[in-house]
Design goal:
With 257 residues, this protein is of the alpha/beta class. It has 8 helices and 10 strands. The chain is globular.
Length: 257
């Protein structure tokens, strides 16, 4: 597969230039975002800001546009109307720059099954222009518990192992933003604990996180803010400090019925 056909759609290139220094500005700023597929509206005027160090849980029933929103922010899907600013860059005009700020973990792992775990990370390290890529790749394999499987083909991995490697890929270029679409799929209890630790480290370094989950309790305890999508619109948004599980369950049921 050529570099023009990489799973994340990013050609080999030099590292991104530094983003504008706006420490108090949102890392993600979405204004009146709309998206339709075959004339069917999916997103209907999304307005959302996420700031450094913030974790936001994106909730909603299947088909409400959560994955579409994440894919647009990641630069994998073009927006219809509206604008998205990532670290001060425009999502359409500066798409290649933006991809260097984003790490994406989704149902699709964006890995090459015919390559080994280490070969996958080395490939993406070159793609993102990661300095000392081999060293960082090996460190991340150890970090996600796959060091002993570095030379094994991804096609032989269990679902949980694939997901761990997807996390290593997403963190490889030290992104400022983590976009996570049900990132714990196939993970056991140790995997859940690993994710929590990785997210703590990411937040401590000033990174922000937007994640989807169907587990309301995990959303409540793993985020600073809850956002609920319904009918392609944000219908609820509140700090988790003002919520408990019973309240969130009631609000979610009312918003998505």
């Amino acid at each position: 597969m050529s570099t023009q056909e990489t799973p994340l759609g990013v050609p080999l290139m030099a590292p991104a230039k530094a983003a504008p220094n706006k420490q108090t500005a949102p890392i993600i700023q979405i204004m009146d975002l709309k998206k339709s597929f075959t004339l069917k509206p999916i997103l209907r005027g999304i307005i959302l800001e996420i700031r450094p160090g913030e974790r936001v849980a994106l909730l909603g029933a299947n088909g409400t546009g959560k994955t579409t929103l994440l894919r647009i922010i990641a630069g994998l899907t073009q927006p219809g109307r509206g604008s998205i600013s990532i670290c001060g860059f425009d999502s359409v005009h500066d798409a290649q720059q933006i991809r260097h700020f984003v790490g994406f973990v989704a149902h699709q792992p964006y890995l090459y099954e015919e390559l080994t775990a280490l070969e996958n990370l080395l490939f993406f390290a070159r793609m993102y222009g990661v300095e000392r890529g081999s060293e960082r790749a090996r460190m991340l394999l150890q970090r996600v518990g796959l060091e002993r499987h570095a030379q094994e083909r991804v096609s032989t991995f269990s679902r949980g192992m694939v997901q761990r490697l997807a996390w290593a890929r997403a963190l490889l270029h030290a992104p400022k933003i983590l976009l996570l679409d049900e990132p714990d799929t196939g993970m056991d209890q140790q995997g859940h604990e690993l994710i929590d630790t990785l997210l703590d480290e990411h937040t401590a370094q000033g990174g922000c996180t937007l994640f989807t989950t169907h587990q309301l309790e995990r959303a409540l305890h793993g985020s600073d803010r809850i956002v609920i999508l319904a009918g392609g619109r944000i219908v609820f948004q509140r700090s988790t400090a003002a919520l408990n599980l019973e309240m969130l369950q009631r609000i979610y049921q009312e918003a998505t019925q």
